[in-house]
Amino acid sequence: MFRSLRLQVTAILTSAAALPLAAHAEEINVFAAASLTNALAEIETNFEAATGHDLVISLAGSSALARQIQQGALVDIFISANPGWMDALEADGLVEAGTRFDLLRNSIVLIAAGADAAPVEIGADMDLAALLGDGHLAMALVDSVPAGIYGKASLEALGQWGAVEGRVAQADNVRAALAFVAAGEAPYGIVYATDAAAQDRVTVVGTFPADSHPPIVYPAGDLANRDFPAETEFLDYLRGPEARAAFERQGFVVVSE
Questions:
Q1: Domain check: are 248 and 204 in the same one?
Q2: Is residue 100 domain-shared with residue 112, that is, in the same domain?
Q3: 62 annotated ligand-binding residue
Q4: Residue 40 belongs to a domain with what CATH number?
Q5: The domain containing residue 50 runs over which residues?
Q6: pLDDT, tens digit, 9 for 90 and up, residues 46-72
Q7: What pTM does this model have?
Q8: Is 192 annotated as belonging to a binding site?
Q9: Which of 4, 24, 62, 69 is least surrounded by CB atoms within 10 angstroms?
């Protein structure tokens, strides 16, 4: 009887000791650009193991995510693939003041279907329309999704857009554009370098000059709807060494503060 009572007391004390940790565990809702898919999968696992918090990550084109936030979606952290959509949310008063920072940089590349496509000299002299033949150029939405915006800007700067504008197969996000090329549905596509590195069924045949498009910057920020410590923990983690290593493994350039 005494032994049984002692075991019960021990169990109660053990449970009570665990309560503070459980009480501090939080669910953090994150909206992030689709191009962050692989890196955030690794970061999610490591952050949850280190903190006990639960990350709920939604990935899509930055434009679609930003519009959902504007329409009232309950989101804690937003990571955009370009500054423009974060600017729009800030203008609407939807980003907590002082929490925004530039997290990553990237580049855009021309990819081809298959593992052994010939390289392409990207510049004003290339004939992209001839390269496409009867096929299409896969891109994310060129007027709203960052990867598509950057790609269109580069093609315009190089004098290529007019010749291919009517032959662009637009996808909802950059990962969908990557999938078009990987599946052989489009012979060429424009995606981020990091997306191309995540797919072994495509070949990077050329990199677009950095001065042919606006700088590719990924800002992150805490949204101004609710405030709890776990949000700050996650933003700090994104700037820490473990997240830096995960981003760099996927080919991102981490912005130094």
A1: no
A2: no
A3: yes
A4: 3.40.190.10
A5: 2-104+218-254
A6: 999 999 999 999 999 999 999 999 999
A7: 0.85
A8: yes
A9: 4
